[in-house]
Each structure stands twice: as structure tokens, then as C-alpha cells.
Amino acid sequence: MAGLNDATRGRLLFGGDYNPEQWTPEIWREDIRLMKEAGVNLATVGVFSWATLEPRPGARNFGWLDEVLDLLHDARIGVALATPTASPPPWLGARHPETLPQDENGATVWYGARNQFCASSPLYREYAQRITTDLARRYGHHPALRVWHINNEYGTHCWCDESARHFRRWLRERYQDLDALNDAWGTAFWSQRYDSWEELIPPRRAQYLNNPAQLLDFRRFTSDALLECFTAERDIVAAHSPSGIPVTTNFMPLFSGLDGWRWAAEEDVVSVDIYPDPAVGRENPAGPAHGALVADLTRSQARGPWMLMEQAASAVNFRGVNKPKGEGLMRLWSLQAVARGADSLCFFQWRASRQGSEKFHSAMLPHAGETSRAFRRIRDLGAELDRLAGVTGTGVSAEIAILHDWPAWWASNQPGRPSAELDYPAILAAWHHALWQQNLTADLAHPEADLSGYKMVVIPQLYLLSDAALDGLAAYVRGGGHIVCGFFTGVADPDDRIREGGTDARLRAVLGLATIEEWWPLAAGETVALDDGTTGSLWSEDLTPAGARAEVSYAAGELSGRPALTRHTYGEGTARYVSTLPEPAALRALLARAAEAAGAAPTLPGAPEGVEAVRRGGLLFLLNHTREPITVPLHVPHSDLLTGHPHAADVRLERYGVAVLSPTPTQGSRTCSTQGEHAR
Ligand code: GLA
């Protein structure tokens, strides 16, 4: 199987989406000249080219693409060639409206934008696979080809009749017989029993709350239906290409619509698009924290280096107010991705469009042209990346795992729960943020993963856990592992059936809790006082310990005097439970205490606030996320790969500055280790 090393060939990939169909052949030549000037070595071509490649059913128009690929190749620029199937041409929807998706109300989602396809439509699949086959036959052996890029940001949903038929087939395979489905869905409730497979439909708009297990299965089904589209195209392109061409599809960041663990297992290379909001700065570091979380997740999905397939050179166009990136920010966030395992830095897009819905989205080459400051920044970054060539293929050290899973997310964010304020990705982000801020590097892991290589495992909130996951967690702690477990975890089984006793008995045994009797969610903005002087928000619980020690208790309200944060020794290990969302400083302190007890150390103890420190491939990346210069003390002398300067006792990072430090004086730019560093 091809991997990312085949694509990078020892050099970080640098480039972006390139849409030559929007430009003239004269401009293509200018593009090539400027790409070379900027150090671009990868162009993602063809993402939205279907209507140009197949202007009418069955027609083929490849001449322009032949020329573009040859031009790129002559300039020694590699190509990530995309199948154009994310955006069918208008003729497909006009002639075959059954290929268009329908929403929960049965309303058609029309052409005129993009992504208007029903993943279950046999005709969509047929046309998509035909154009994919012809593209792969023609370019599978093109010397410029480095990566196959399938579709773009899969994530559509459809509730149409064709999807209903497909959903039924999927359900038959999952449950085999209807009694099993009725049992799993709990259809004795509200007279929902199904008497024949034909009665089953997607959870369309109903009079009141839809069946939760049906909603959950529909999420699973939708992810699987899209995955079938991906694997079909993947197999076609692989069959027509040499073995060293990896296949990927670009994920949206922390996206709920696809089961990311299942999808990643089907890819040669995992890639993602990251668009943090540059409007948030030092006071609210959600931008870089988001980037760090998505990078950690993608690296964990990839089990190693990954591709940043898209980021913005400056402003995006899809927020209410779209701020550009201030001087230094594009570089800082790019190098953050490299620090956290990326082997490619690509952008949407190379040249800014002059027409269409994204004409106000920034690009590597902006409307202001090659003399702009924005293009200068791109050129500077391209030049700098040569010095980091040695990091490609190397791993990131992480001693902590954060458990994360999509079905748990889907199930806990449904209506009819104890609180509509509960927002799974926000809770995950809060816990990751607390670790990130103190440079405790973490991987994300599937709840059933082998956790034995991690010193500490944290579970921000996993409402739904399988038996295998619960058994694995218990064994991990029994064998000496340390866990910190957040509220509303282990409540349901994979059918969304509440576990006996309200929270799984195995988990309660690990946590040393007799019962978690009632959930006491807090209203938006409401807090509850804790007896250590801090507060909790979002949630609280009525716990009764059986062996666990209350470390912090509620100090007000109905639960006053009852335990809030507990600690329990189980087997050789320790299990902490957190029944509320501690205020950020308290969550940080709690995780710091737990990490210290577990022997998991921050990357650079004593690093000043605002400085991110990550180790990758034997190098220490230091990133200043503030607008002020910061001096970072070093424990041993280092030299900076980016500047070539030695640093004996400390290193000064300018506003948004970065240092990539090697503990021994560098002889050149390719001195760092190429060994993987996974804790696993
Ligand atoms: C996504 C898409 C791109 C473009 C960008 C804009 O990542 O894949 O085609 O629309 O968003 O930010």
C-alpha cells in the first residue's frame, strides 16, 4: 500500500488547490512561474472540474488537463489529482432529478451550488465512477501524479426514497431479522414496532421526537453510504495507477458527519482542511487551540504523518466577519501543523477566483498579485520549508490519550437529553485545550484502542461506550493506568439503550462509585460553587461513592456537600471522575495533577504561557501564540533549524514567532531523526 512517504519523497508538500479551468492558458504559464518562485511542489487539480471534463453526458474534454499536467510536470510540480465527483454538472440534476438529495422534509436540494448528490443514487455513482475511470486511465501513469484526491469534503445527507431503500438494505445487514431491529430500536415505546422491512424509512420530519436509535443508525448509515462512494472511486484509481500513488480524501475539521475512525482506516493517507478563526487572539486562543485539536485528531487517525490539504492564506469568506491573518499568523499556524505531524502544507487555493461564491476567499496568490505582502509571505514560507525537509515521516511524542468517538457524539447531541446545552465537540475541545495550554501533548484514540502505551487516558465525555471499550478501560486501570473521566460517560450501549443502573456497572466499579443517581444539568451561563473555591458549569451529578474519595464537593445548591470530583484506586491504577465542567483554570490544574501522578510530563516544563511546545522527530518546536516577544528558557543548548543560530540558555520568540530546535548544533538542514516517536 502506498503511503505519505511516497508522495513527499523526503520534502514537505507545499501548494494548494489549483483551478486552471477558471483561467486562460496565458495565466497558467504565469501561475507556473509564480508557483516555482514560491517553492510550490504540489498542486491539487480537478476538484470541481466535472462540468468542464464532461460538458454533456458521456462527452470528454481532457485536452486542457493534459496541457496543465504537462506544464506542472515540466516545472517539477507534483499533482494531487482529484476526482471531480463532489460537484456534478447541472445536466445530471436537470436530466435525473433523482440524483439530487432531499432533506428531512422531502424538499430537493438543487444544483447551482455544489455537493448536490445523493450518495445512494445508483445513477450518480455510475456517472461518478465512469468519469473517475476515464480520468484514472488517462492520468494514472502521468509522471506528475503524486496523490489521488477523491471527491472533496464528503458530508452530504439525503432522506429521499432511494436513500430509504439503501437504508433498509443496510439495516437488514446490520440486524438480519426484524425482531432484532425492533429490540435495538426499542420500538415498544410509542407504538413504533415495525412489521415489515418495507415500512422502514430514514428519520424524516415527524410530529414529535424521532426514535433515538433510528437517528443514530441513520448517522451510521449515512457515513457508510458515503464511504462506499469513496472506496469505489479509490479502488478505480488504484487499479489504474502504479503502486506508489497514495489515495486520500480531505476531511472537514472535527466533522460530525463521517465516522472518522472507520474512514481513516480506508485511506492510504489521511488529510484534513483546517480553518481556525484569526479573529480570536491572545485573550481567546480558540484559533490555535482548534488547529492543535484537529492536528492531533488527524495524526491519530493517520497513526503518523498526515496532510494538511487546505488552509487559508489569510481571510475566509464563510464567517459573519472575515478577518485576514495578521503578519506572522499564517506562518505560525502552518508550522504548528508541521509540529503536530503534518507532512504537507496546502492551501485553498492557489490563485484567488474573480468570480463565484468564493471570490472574497484569500488565496496564496491574492487579487493584489505577486507584489502583495500576502504573496511575499507565501514565498517566504515556501523557502523556509526546505530547512524542515528532515521532519517528513517522523512522529510526534504523546504520553496521553483522549478518547473520542463519533457514535458517542451522535448519540449525545440528540434532542430529548437531560440538557440541550450539552455540546460534545465543545466539551472535547475544552479538555484538549486544558492539556494543550500546558504542553501536555495528547493523541486521540478510539475507545476500544490499545491504551497500554499511554501514561494517562482522559475521557472528556463519552455517553455511549461498547462492552469492549468498558472492559478495555477497566483492564487499563487495573493494570496501573491513570484515567480522568468526565460526566455523562458510559451511560448507554451502542444501541443507545441506557445501561443498567444508569451508568455502566464496570465503569462505576473502576471509578469507585455506587451510583450516579441523577443528572443536574445547569442552564446556559449558570455556575455551581465548589468547595475548593472554583466553580463548575454545564452539568452536575448526584454521586454516591463506594470506595472513591471526594477531592472536591459541591458547595451550593441542591447538591451542596455531595462529591463533585472523586479519586479512586482500582487495581494498580487510579481513576478520577469529574461530574461537572470545571472552570478552565481548575480543569487545567486537575489535569496537571493527574498527569504528574501518572508521570506524563509537559513537553518543556516551565515554558511561558502562550508558548506551545511540541516534540516531533527529535526536534523541539516552540510557537509563540501571542503578539508580544517572549523569551523561553532552555534546559540544554539548542540550535535553531530555521535560522541556523545556536541558543545556549534561552531563545527569544518574536510576535507569533517560531523556533525549531535541535539539541545538538546542526550541520545542515537535514539532521533530525527520522524515527517515529509514537508512545504506542
Ligand atoms: C473547503 C472546500 C474548498 C473551499 C474552502 C473554503 O475546505 O474544500 O473547496 O470551499 O472550504 O474555505
UniProtKB/TrEMBL annotation:
Glycoside hydrolase family 42 N-terminal domain segment(s): 17-387
Does the keyword NAD feature in the UniProt annotation? no
Q: Which UniProt keywords apply?
A: Glycosidase, Hydrolase, Metal-binding, Zinc
GO CC terms in record: beta-galactosidase complex
Record-annotated residues binding Zn(2+)? C118, C158, C160
Q: Where is the Beta-galactosidase C-terminal domain?
A: 610-662
The protein's enzyme class: hydrolase
InterPro entries, A to Z: Beta_galactosidase_C, Beta_galactosidase_Trimer, Class_I_gatase-like, GH, Glyco_hydro_42, Glyco_hydro_42_N, Glyco_hydro_b
A single Pfam family it belongs to is Glyco_hydro_42M
Active site: residue positions: E153, E310
Q: Which GO terms describe its biological process?
A: galactose metabolic process
Which EC numbers characterise this protein's activity in its record? 3.2.1.23
Q: Which Gene3D superfamilies does this chain map to?
A: 3.40.50.880, Glycosidases (3.20.20.80), Golgi alpha-mannosidase II (2.60.40.1180)
What family is reported?
Belongs to the glycosyl hydrolase 42 family.
Q: What is this protein called?
A: Beta-galactosidase
Give the organism the record lists. Streptomyces xiamenensis
Lineage at the top is: Bacteria, Bacillati, Actinomycetota, Actinomycetes, Kitasatosporales
